[in-house]
Amino acid sequence: MRALLLVLVLSACPSSTSTPPISSPAPAPAPPPPPPSEFGFYLLSMTWEPNRCCTESDHGQCDQLAGSFAATHLTLHGLWPNFADEQSRGKPRAWPQYCGAYQHCEKAEDASCAPGARVPDELARLAPGYVAGTGAFAAHEWSKHGGCTQLSAAEYFRAELAAIRAIPGEATPDALRAAVGADLARDELQRAFGVPPETVMLGCDARCRLTRVGFCLAKDAGDHPTSPIACTANVATSDYDNGCVTHGCQRVAIQAASVCDSK
Questions:
Q1: H or E stretch covering 251
Q2: Contact 47, 212 (CB under 8 A)
Q3: Whole-angstrom Cα distance, residue 94 to residue 92?
């Protein structure tokens, strides 16, 4: 009887060598959300190529400028994050640049600065510098500006297209095209874009020749550009962005392609 009881007790006790039950693996932690943006709005910067090609003629697309889209239309320079006036206080500049993993690109842009995304076909017309030659300008704009947003490179390029489409006529009004080789009143040009004039910045050189046009755009929580907004004082007082105003130009000369007056 004692032997039988001992057998029953031993059989009821768990074996020290038994295999523990298999538990389900713990779910992988969710990736952290992207850090919140540290900028307030975008400046969509467009270039007047006939003026730029007179001062930087080494660019490949300048050889084919005459008769091209860029000879009569503004073309994309970039979509630039900018600080609101209050955000810029105490900072070395009014915009962020070369953020996070792209800090080293400020000294030397190498393969790690490339966007890793194909430039959309539409930008071949609207931004010839992005696709001409090696396409290095797209990498420059991405590493310097796009990398400071929450957007991926592909999203950033699409955002640039969306920003251009937010301005009627692909950001080049009929009044500007009609004035090529002549000039027009600064206020008339500023109103011609079909958006509030306070959202439009006109860049001029010291001789009141158009160099670029900028548009201040709001952004949503995901850093996608939305509608035109009034530009900040930092932008409106910039000789680079708003030189037609800071130089006191009442009329703005619109250079024609390959016409470079050195006087």
A1: strand 251-253
A2: yes
A3: 7
Helix (H) or strand (E) holding 142: helix 136-144
pLDDT in tens, 89-122: 999 999 999 999 999 999 998 999 999 998 888 8
Separation in Å, CA 86 to CA 38, 93, 152, 232: 12, 12, 27, 10
Nearest by Cα to 118 from 133, 103, 101, 139: 139
Class of domain 41-253: alpha beta
Reading the block at residue 107, the tokens are 């000294």
Whole-structure pTM value: 0.84
Inter-residue contact 168 to 194 (CB < 8 Å): yes
Q: How far is CA 176 from CA 72, 232, 239, in A?
A: 8, 25, 21
Tokens 């991926």 correspond to 152
How far apart are the C-alpha atoms of 149 and 142, rounded to whole Å? Answer: 10
